[in-house]
Write a structure and sequence with these properties.
By secondary structure, the chain is mainly α. It has five helices and two strands. It has one domain (about 1-140).
C-alpha cells in the first residue's frame, strides 16, 4: 500500500534527522518541529524511529498477509513508544513552576508548555493510529 510506504519514508527521514542532529550535539527547531540533540531522545530515539520506518517499508508490500501486517503494527508500536515518552515528558515539564517561581506552575505557564514545537514522533502518532485502524478493519472484513 502506497500510504504505508510514504509513512515509512517520512519515518525513516525523521529517524535519520534525529540521529544526525544528536551526532552534532545541538538540538534544532524548525517552526513547529523540534529535533532534540541529547543522546537519549535524539540518538536512541532516532534509532527507534528509524527502525519503525524500516518496519513500515518492509511490511507495506502486501499488508493483507499476516507477517507484513505484523511488521507494520510493530512499526506503529515503536512510534507509540516514542510519542508516549514525549507526551509524558511534556506533562511532567508542565507541572512544576520555574526555579525562582512558585512550587506549581501558573495556568498560563501550564498551558504554554503544550504549545509547539513538537518532536517528530508526535507528528507521526496520528498516522500510525490510522494505519493500525486500517489493518484492524481489513482483518474484520475477512
Amino acid at each position: 500500500m502506497i500510504c504505508i510506504a510514504i509513512l515509512g519514508v517520512v519515518t525513516v527521514a525523521f529517524g535519520l534527522a534525529d540521529i544526525l542532529v544528536s551526532a552534532g550535539g545541538d538540538g534544532t527547531e524548525l517552526s513547529i518541529l523540534e529535533i532534540p540533540g541529547d543522546m537519549f531522545r535524539g540518538g536512541w530515539g532516532g534509532f527507534i524511529v528509524l527502525f519503525a520506518g524500516l518496519f513500515y517499508l518492509s511490511g507495506c508490500k502486501n499488508v493483507a498477509e499476516v507477517h507484513n501486517a505484523s511488521k507494520v503494527a510493530m512499526g506503529s508500536v515503536l512510534i507509540w513508544i516514542m510519542a508516549g515518552t514525549d507526551i509524558f515528558a511534556m506533562i511532567t515539564e508542565s507541572i512544576p513552576g520555574g526555579e525562582d517561581g512558585p512550587w506549581f506552575n501558573s495556568l498560563s505557564g501550564f498551558l504554554g508548555t503544550y504549545a509547539p514545537p513538537y518532536a517528530p514522533a508526535m507528528f507521526l502518532l496520528p498516522f500510525s493510529l490510522v494505519v493500525v485502524y486500517y489493518i484492524l478493519k481489513q482483518e474484520r472484513t475477512r
